[in-house]
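User: I'll paste a sequence; please echo it back and then give the predicted structure.

Assistant: Echoing your sequence first, then the prediction.
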Amino acid sequence: MRPRKIGILGGSFNPAHQGHRDISLAALRLLALDEVWWLVSPQNPLKSSDGMGDFRDRVASAEKITKHPRIKVSDFETRMGEPRTAKMLPKLIESNPDCRFVWLMGADNLVQFPQWYRWEDIMDTVPIAVFNRPGYTYQALNGLIAHKYRKNRLFPTVDGKPIPQFALAPTPCWVFVSQTAHKISSTHIRNFHDTTGITCS
């Protein structure tokens, strides 16, 4: 049997929103993935805990947004007690030997990726798909990661698919997906909620 190709979208999901879903749907289509798993982090090491919603509430908001049979919400980081991606990924791979994983991130995350714990190990562990976000395109494509791994970048084919077998590509490798350029963010939603009193849903 061929391995299942799984996209991993990690984050606080504080709260989850349509932008997360749009990236997931694009990944399913353009990277020929079988599923996308949303890994809800108990606490992002690079973010303040101020304003962080209750973990169960964030999982619930993610489950409410997904609305797709091939997008799953997971508490794997909490169960493993490991919010750092570089240490969590080997455990995820070991727990799912029938899967091949792709890490999904927005262009804004690629800009700050050098701040992540052992980020080079992450590059060596799984292929990475970077999804465009307005305001971050230039920084992402001209930053440290893009420069250091310029020879490892894969490009879309003529029909628009970055690589149908991207999940099976040897690492390090990455691709920039320009088809998604969602402006919404969890921060924007929280700020809107704070200023209007309207409940996020």
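Residues 18-30 form the longest helix (13 residues). Confidence is low (pLDDT under 50) at residues 183-201.
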